[in-house]
Amino acid sequence: MRNKRIRNGAILLVCCCLLLIGYPTVGESQDVQARQVVYLLDIDGTVNPALADYITKGIEKAEEKNAACVVIRMDTPGGVLTTTKSIIKEMINAKVPVVIYVAPSGSSATSAGALIAVCADVAAMAPGTNIGAAHPVSGGGQEIDSTMSDKIVNDITAYIRGIVAKKGRNPEWPEKAIRESVSITAQEALNLKVIDLIADSIPDLLEKLDGRKIEKEKREFVLKTKGATVERIVPGLRFKILDVIANPNIAYMLMMIGGLGIMMELYNPGLIFPGVAGGICLLLSFFALQVLPVNYVGILLIILAIILFILELKVQSFGLLSLGAIISLTLGSVMLFDSTEVAMQVSWSVIIPMVSAVSAFFIVLLGLVVKAWMKKPRTGQQGLVGEVGTALTDIDPEGKVAVHGEYWNARSEGRIPKGEKVRVIKVLDMEVSVTRHSGL
What we know:
Elements: H1 2-22, H2 26-34, E1 37-44, H3 49-64, E2 69-75, H4 81-92, E3 98-102, E4 108-110, H5 112-118, E5 122-125, E6 130-132, H6 146-166, H7 172-180, E7 183-185, H8 186-191, E8 197-198, H9 202-209, E9 213-216, E10 219-222, E11 229-232, H10 237-245, H11 248-267, H12 273-289, H13 296-314, H14 320-335, H15 348-374, E12 388-391, E13 398-403, E14 406-411, E15 421-428, E16 431-436
Parallel strand pairs: 1-2, 1-11, 2-3, 3-5, 4-6, 5-8, 14-16
Antiparallel strand pairs: 6-7, 9-10, 12-13, 12-15, 13-14, 15-16
């Protein structure tokens, strides 16, 4: 019996040891599982505020899930410089490693895309891709004037060199890409130490990333990506809408059209369509303004312009209020977005037609109001003055007349026989003063 107890105790001890050796702790299991998830985001188009919003939310989700890293697959012709800086700042301050992967073959990281790629924690490219041509241009692709260009080039060069050097890559080439618009292939980029590796596909990329050490904010990450689960963050409806309307010109036009629609509905209640369309356009413009650098002085000037137009309809200022409204509307349109970048400002080719259309709308409306003021009243007691009727009885000096199909008590200074035509000269309470109608 004693030997049996010893044998059972030994078996139990061995089982406990095997359990302790064979299985990690609960915390370790969760950490390994979390470190085997990689989030994949896609940049396929211009770099704009909507894209920055998408990347920010993707990185935040990866941080919440304690992912191994975030891979941003890129194919872009470039975009807005301020948005580019915003994305780079988000990548640098992310609590998870961020990998930029220029792919698939045939893709490119041009202009703003090149700057984003070289500032990533890991920069990778697929065969048959290229990177470069990062010289700043205006929103329409034209060269910026020399003085402003020098300022922008010097600023962005210093900004990028500092980040690239910290990442341990070649800081000379990004400067050439900015100043001389040079562009290179994936293999050339690897040889010049512009990027860290070349990968054929996402699985190949994850295999080559596995075991790589990355330092971020005095913290070291060891990537565990081999065989990791890839979860793609698909852009939602919010991103798709923002991607279309995040253009300052589109947001501005939506705001102006929305304002016109609401005003038409207020002046003509019951039309329905202008009010509904205007409300939708205004809501879409407000949605876009969430990610655009709005100057609230510009918005206040536009609101002031609308108030002045409305006052012009109520007060006879001989056009002074309308002139002030047009000036205020123009200045507000120019100042609407707080950015020195041409790409983030409303184009004059959009401002002039929109200001002209809004001004014409209110001026035409003003003309109709003035015309209505000057027009003889057609309804009510005042509308009876000057109208011709028929004497229903002899009027001497009182009697009854029919005017506009209505019977009225009438008074006349002279006798008017029954059946004669009369003309109303005055209305007092429920009685009209009439005179014999000469027929002229």
